[in-house]
Amino acid sequence: MIYICVPAHNEARTLGVLLWKIRRVFKEFDRDYRILVLDDASTDDTAEVLERYRQVLPLDVVTTTERLGYGGALDKVLRAAVEKAPYPKRDVIVTLQGDFTEGPDDIVPLIKAIEGGADLVAGSVGSIGTPPRAVKLSRWAAARLLRSSLASAPVSDPTCGLRAYRVVVVKKALRDRGDAPLVQGNGLVANVELLRTLAPHARRIQDTPIALRYDLRKRGSRMKPLSTTLDLFKIRNRPWLPRENTA
Questions:
Q1: Long-range CB contacts for residues 177-184, cutoff 8 Å, separation at least 24
Q2: Domain spans of the chain, in order of start
């Protein structure tokens, strides 16, 4: 089973199209899948959109009444997927944004890499369309503040959130963390933190090229360069931990 995990806050304009596109991808790719959406205290029509699609898609929805932010929502939806997965060494989690920046078509090469023996596969970002200024500034800050750390990272782009994980990798990280969250930051900082937390439990890690679709985005970026930079300072010197012998 493949669990597509989507943290979402006020994504009513794109979420329905995204879900239908996931359906089309898996109709051709022919794998068993479920979609898990974490509705992070949305105040628009996100809940109504999800309710319509629950009737026609293998869709589960987790709802929060207080805003968690991207990092907290990502943590919660990953935990939900681990709880549902009956075969942790075989089942797969894919993390995908709800704003259509990350395309469902790019899920296929991630899954094929897992089926080829990888335990963790990360997207390596190219882009179609012009990234928002906030995204450009945040990536610029990450490239400089994490320069020495990125050189020893297990993938070429630790800031990208479109990834596939064998469920056992996430399950082992949760076992080690206990009640502590997998990540504490938001945005690309949360993506870097999550990779640091999960990578030690993966025997084989690889990346695959993807294209971020800024031309399809229907809202402005929520990334805040100043807070991102402050969070980057907190994690800039943290080392990449050695991997376990088995995953």
A1: 181/71, 181/72, 181/75, 182/74, 182/75, 182/78, 183/71, 183/74, 183/75, 184/71
A2: 2-235
How confident is the model over 134-142, as a mean pLDDT?
72
**Helices and strands, counts by H and E, the chain:** 9, 7
Do the Cβ atoms of 1 and 91 come closer than 8 Å? Answer: yes
CATH superfamily of 2-235: Spore Coat Polysaccharide Biosynthesis Protein SpsA; Chain A (3.90.550.10)
Candidates 35, 56, 72; CA nearest to 184 is 72
CB atoms within 10 A of CB 27: 8
What's the pLDDT tens digit per position in 14-54?
899 999 999 999 999 999 999 999 999 999 999 999 999 99
Strand partners, 122: 163, 207
Q: How far apart (Å, rounded) are the C-alpha atoms in residues 141 and 137?
A: 6
Q: How far is CA 225 from CA 99, 189, 231, 236, in A?
A: 19, 11, 10, 16
Radius of gyration for the alpha carbons in the chain, expressed in angstroms and rounded = 17
Q: How far apart are CA 23 and CA 177, in angstroms?
A: 34
Q: Which has the higher per-residue pLDDT, 231 or 58?
A: 58
pLDDT of residue 247: 43
The pLDDT, as a whole number, for residue 73 is 95
Tokens representing residue 32 in the block: 């068993």
Amino acid of residue 78: L
Who has greater pLDDT, 245 or 174?
174
Q: What angle do CA 84, 86, 88 make, to 5 degrees?
A: 100
DSSP-based three-state secondary structure for 126: strand
